[in-house]
Amino acid sequence: QVSAALKEGHVTPTELCQRCLALIKSTKVLNAYITIAEESALKQAEASEERYKRGQPLGVLDGIPIAVKDNFNTAGIETTCASNMLRGYISPYNATVVQKLLDQGAVLLGKTNLDEFAMGSGSTDGVFGPVRNPWSYSRQYKEKSVPKSHSEDKESNWVITGGSSGGSAAAVSSFTCFAALGSDTGGSTRNPAAHCGVVGLKPTYGLISRHGLIPLVNSMDVPGILTRCVDDAAVVLGSLAGHDPKDSTTIQDDFKPFELPDLTDVSKLSIGIPKEYHAPGLSSEILALWSKAADLFQNAGAKVVEVSLPHTRYSIVCYHVLCTAEVASNMARFDGLEYGHRSDVSESTESMYAATRREGFNDVVRGRILSGNYFLLKQNYEKYFVKAQKVRRLIVNDFMKVFRSGVDVLLTPTTLSDAAPYVEFIKEDNRTRSAQDDILTQAANMAGLPAINVPTALSERGLPVGLQFIGRSFQEQQLLTVAKWFEKQIQFPMIQLEEIKRHDHGVLQDQKSTSFS
Amino acid sequence: EKVSVEVLDHLEHLALVDFRDSEGVERLQKAIQFADQLHEVNTEGVEPMDSVVEDRCLYLREDDVTEGNCTKELLENAREKVEEYFVAPAGNIPLPKLGERETFLQGS
Fold first, then answer.
1. Residue A56: CB partners within 8 Å, gap ≥ 6?
2. Domains in chain A and their CATH numbers?
3. Which residue among A163, A262, A378, A397 is buried most deeply as judged by most CB within 10 Å?
4. B59 → closest Cβ in A248, A346, A394
């Protein structure tokens, strides 16, 4: 919609950009952004405006404000990964996905907040502080929350965004941008998408370039896409997917961007319901929603079958070992010599490295590095690392078996419950939380499959809950078509931002229902 | 079976990262305990999987120089440099042993 508006001149790219920047300022409490690239964004918007005036926009994304998670390199803009290790690091280059978006004319508003080095499921463990879920300030949430006492600080029961791409999810959810990039290694795009009521797409591993995405787990990382509707996700996917010579893990098949058909007949569809996803701790609310969704498909004529993915519960353990092992390797590059923080200690190379890393990394990162090194020790290599790789194959085989039996798409919950209040969430440590929260999303990363969170309904507490669709490798078109059909059936309510709305009534009105496609 | 101090020290050396306090060591213990669940799975005859795209040939480009000459940009982010070199402290001095360096493990 907004793209059409730009084309017809109802609004100009600079106006749009300015409004978004103003909204970012007024929603500062959310702490969704680490860096705001105001000057360059306005320049990009001006350039876009020129193109529209000449009737030559670069495409649907020309002039559209976007945000990028702060673990993607962005030339000339600080890239921190929410860590002291990279404070002050100005990227000398753009990640391929960033470059692609800029080439399409998108306007980069800024870098969004995350858990330090994308490790975490709350977006609470970065050095710039936690991200607040915009729904904490929605009428829907406030109506349902019971104040414990008059004097209680209104602010104290704000809820988390989920993570680790919490900043990106919050940015899209609060209308400060029309699309955002996140990353997804264990669910880091889908988890916050579910908690913030936005669409979160994890593409198939190998479809989108990881060049410029600061790596966590090379064999599972993918750039993630966060938008307000499925059609928008398809548009962004269209501009990002495809082989990149700079990332040799991207497949060489030709990728053709697609438009999503308006599916009306689902009778040829087979939806699988994996019974193991009825995990311990799954809230009864979400269980009911999942069931309702399955019924929705069935009543519309689709074939809905229960399936089994027997190794699901080991996925998180497997991830734990493989992730920490790859992290131990990937974090070795941070030694203070070429970029990033450097300690003043200078007795020897080793002591400088050790001090730099002690000063630059938080407990979570250090913990994972040490665990990873433990699993990679010669005496443990077979027992843990290779064992985990074998279990990984079993998990992948589970999925292959189910898809071979005729199932097109799997339907599962995305999270175990709606977003927790920050004060509750921090009672457990990062590793425990990640193990609990990633359980439903992780297996898709293990197998490299595409998966998408579609916001489904509001919980009893007035917070968003989403459901996840998992598709076959490289079948994003099918996956998104099904997701779009579902999205249309359920009509997820729009967030009614309260206090924030008071300041920017005009701004929000225009941006409220807009998608850009 | 707790992890021995020797192994903990070894890990600090390998990772060049320290445990910092007892919580850090506890964290490792719990991580190992968690990972031990893997042994419940029967993986006889199963090949380890390195990558989900193992059934494809990865792209290898021609060995031609297509970019470079960006010394200035690359040096920009380094704190200590001389001419076109990154400067590091002496590399032939090993990290002090357990008894001599500042580490939480000393007390164990």
1. none
2. 1-144+159-264+409-490 (3.90.1300.10)
3. A163
4. A248
Nearest CA in chain B to A429: B27
User: What DSSP character marks residue A419?
Assistant: P
* Tokens standing for residue A330: 């990937």
Residue B10 forms contact with A (CB below 8 Å): yes
Work out the minimum CA distance from A298 to partner chain B, whole angstroms: 32
**Which residues neighbour A57 within 8 Å (Cβ) at sequence distance 6 or greater?**
A6, A7, A48, A51, A63, A105
Chain B residues touching A366 at Cβ < 8 A: 17-20, 24
Query: Where in the sequence numbering do the catalytic residues of A fall?
Result: 69, 164, 188
Instruction: Specify whether the CB–CB gap between A400 and A449 falls below 8 A.
Output: no
Which pLDDT tens digit goes with each residue over B18-70?
A: 888 888 899 999 999 999 999 999 999 999 999 999 988 888 888 999 888 88
Task: Give me the DSSP letters along A438-453.
Answer: GGGTHHHHHHT--EEE
Phi, psi values for residue A412, rounded to 5° = -140, 165
User: For residue A214, what are the CA distances in angstroms to A157, A245, A326, A366?
Assistant: 33, 17, 13, 17
Euclidean distance between the first and the last CA atom of chain B, given in angstroms as a whole number? 16
Nearest to A389 among B37, B48, B76 (CB): B48
Phi, psi of A282, rounded to the nearest 5 degrees:
-70, 125
| B65 contact A CB<8A | no
- State how far residue A241 is from chain B, nearest Cα, in angstroms: 16
Q: List the single residue in A338, A346, A391 with the smallest CB-CB distance to B77.
A: A338
Closest CA of chain A from B99, distance in Å? 15
pLDDT tens-digit series, residues A239-285: 999 999 999 999 999 899 999 988 888 999 999 999 999 998 899 99
Structure-derived torsion over alpha carbons of residues A503, A507, A510, A511, reported in degrees to the nearest 10 = -90
Helical (H) or strand (E) element with B67: none
